[in-house]
Every structure is written in structure tokens, then in C-alpha cells.
Design a protein that fits this description.
The chain is α+β, with helices and mostly antiparallel strands and about 80 residues long. The chain has one domain: Glucose-6-phosphate isomerase like protein, domain 1 (Rossmann fold). A three-stranded antiparallel β-sheet has the order 1-3-2, with no helix packed on it. The longest helix is centred in the C-terminal third of the chain and has 20 residues.
Amino acid sequence: MAVVSMKQLLEAGVHFGHQTRRWNPKMAPYIFTERNGIYIIDLQKTVKKLDEAYNFVFETAANGGEILFVGTKKQAQ
């Protein structure tokens, strides 16, 4: 079961990416389409990668590992 649903991501606007003139070619596999000069992110792949990240963090913490979250924006601090 997904930690975050596609509906939740869609409602949060996660699918809106950068403007098409500002992009990193490494993101190409995760871009669903382009609309009005903005890339639309593939939410199916996003949900899969979020689940992988969640499982990694869960397993690391369960095995006594330490996890450091770093936020550089005011909203994340």
C-alpha cells in the first residue's frame, strides 16, 4: 500500500514541474508530458519512488541507523 496516494499528490500540486526552458535531462524518465510551458511529472513513478524512499528510511531506522534530514528553505527549518 502506498504511503502517499496519487490523489494526495495531485491535490498538493506535486505534478507541476519546472518550466520547459529550465530542466535537467536526468529528469526525462520522470516527465509525463509538457503543458503550457511547464513539465508535468509522472505521479505513478513518483508514488513508486516515495514508497522506495519510505522503505529505505524505515529499514535504516529499524536497524538502529541514523537519518539526517536537511532543509535549506525557511519552510523546511
